[in-house]
Amino acid sequence: MYNLFLRIILLRSPSSVFSHGFSKSLLKSLRFLSTSSETVSSPKSSSLASNVVQINNNRKAVISFFENHGFSESQIFDIVKKVPLILSVNPETLFPILLFFQSKAELGTVEKTVATIKRFPRILGWNLSVGPNIELLKQIGVPDSNISTYLQGQPKIFLTSSVRFKEIVERVTEMGFSPQRLQFLVAVFALRSMTKSSWDKKVEVYRKWGLSEEEIRLAFRRHPMCMAFSEDKTNGVMDFFVNKIGCQSSFVARKPSLLSFSLKKKILPRGYIYQVLLSKGLIKKHANIPMFVKISENRFVEKFINPHKEQIPGLLELYEQKLMDSRR
């Protein structure tokens, strides 16, 4: 009952603090929270009064905990504003995950820890699964630097039940990924984002384009995120390269990173230029298709448009028009 009461109070009260601003220190603002009539008005029982005291003491303890571990007022403010319910947490439960972040998980600095919490605040409530999941990765040889990269950039990868996380890791290992490479975690992230039924549907999309089971597995090993795109996106890209450009479907399986580029904003405008140059005999069929898509905008104009301005007047204008059309 106390925990429910506490959560109700905290869900309401942070807005009171933030609406009044933080012209004074964070602790003074929180002191306002403790005495605000909006938070609790005239407790009618000793039990209710006792709960209020416990809530206020807990808030002070949480703030003190962060201060004692090197967090500045502004950093504490950022965390409390992002995760108001942090004020309801027993500080003792925060210590293991904070220790893990700053020493074991290679986040190292308070700044990186705050950034991670702000990016994905739910991680504070999942310390029981985060630790075992990272320990599992360490046990199989995933480098600390790779774990740190994903913990900072995509912390939700670790917010999975230990049982499911282990199943995903085992599956990725069976597929031939090396734990020493960052690609291993990319594959874990991709599989975590979908259910088995979602995976099966995406496999079926590739099968309809004539890819074998082995070709699909090869594509996933080379670029795991190729299985994370929507079925519409995959069909659109496959249709362009197979039906418009005339590539074999196996070509895309060998170059699955092509699927990561925007069909509308990059593949189609540049594909148009490819078809124009091909029709004029200025390039060979299927030559440098990955480069056509991957290189920077300036490099694309420099390499594929400027050299052919004289042979094809208005080529740059045609390309720019295609780019404008893609933004509509």
From TrEMBL:
<comment type="similarity">
    <text>Belongs to the mTERF family.</text>
</comment>
<keyword id="KW-0804">Transcription</keyword>
<protein>
    <submittedName>
        <fullName>Transcription termination factor MTEF1</fullName>
    </submittedName>
</protein>
<dbReference type="InterPro" id="IPR003690">
    <property type="entry name" value="MTERF"/>
</dbReference>
<keyword id="KW-0809">Transit peptide</keyword>
<dbReference type="InterPro" id="IPR038538">
    <property type="entry name" value="MTERF_sf"/>
</dbReference>
<keyword id="KW-0806">Transcription termination</keyword>
<keyword id="KW-0805">Transcription regulation</keyword>
<dbReference type="GO" id="GO:0003676">
    <property type="term" value="F:nucleic acid binding"/>
</dbReference>
<dbReference type="GO" id="GO:0006353">
    <property type="term" value="P:DNA-templated transcription termination"/>
</dbReference>
<dbReference type="Pfam" id="PF02536">
    <property type="entry name" value="mTERF"/>
</dbReference>
